[in-house]
Design a protein that fits this description.
Elements: H1 4-20, E1 26-30, H2 33-49, H3 51-56, E2 62-66, E3 70-73, E4 84-88, E5 98-104, H4 109-112, H5 115-127, E6 133-142, H6 151-157
Parallel strand pairs: 1-4, 1-5, 5-6
Antiparallel strand pairs: 2-3, 3-4
Helix pairs in contact: 1-2
Length: 169
Amino acid sequence: LLTHNTQQMSILRTLWRLGHDVTSRIVIIQSSATIAKDTVTSIKQHIESNKNLRAVFPHLKPGDLWTGDTITIERPPGIRTPSVQARGAFGKVLGHRYDTVIADDVVTLETSRTAYMRARLLEWFIKEPMSRLLSGGQALVLLNAFHPEDMGHALAKMAGWKKIGRAHV
C-alpha cells in the first residue's frame, strides 16, 4: 500500500529528478526494507511502461542494475552509486554517496515509543544517511508525528532544516 505522500514525493519526485538529471543518486528510506522495495518497484514500473513518463523523459530507460531494491538508469559511465536504492530504517547506506535522501515514514510508533528508540533513530539518520549526502544535496523527510521529541520534531529544531506542514501530538 502506497500513500499519497509516497506516491508524490518518493515516487513521482524521484522520477522527475532522474528525468532531469540521469546522474542522480537517490536513497529511499522507509520504515522497513520491504516497504522501500515496493516504492522502488513502482518507480521501475513507471520507467518500464508509463507512456506519459516516456513522452516527457524519452531518455529515462533501465540501465545495467535492475533489481528489487536497487536500480540504475541509463547514464554516463563511471558513477558507482546506483540511481535509486531502497533501504529500511537502520539499513546500511555507508559506502555510497547520494544527492537526495528521502526518509518516508521512518518515524513509527515503535521508533518513537521510548526515549532510547527516538534517540537511536535520530542518531542513525544523522550519522548514516545524512553523512552520505553530497554537498548541495537535499534530504526530504516525510512523516507523521508520534511524539513531541521524535525525529521530525528534533530535525525541525536543528539549523538547516525547514519544516513544511504542521505537527499535532
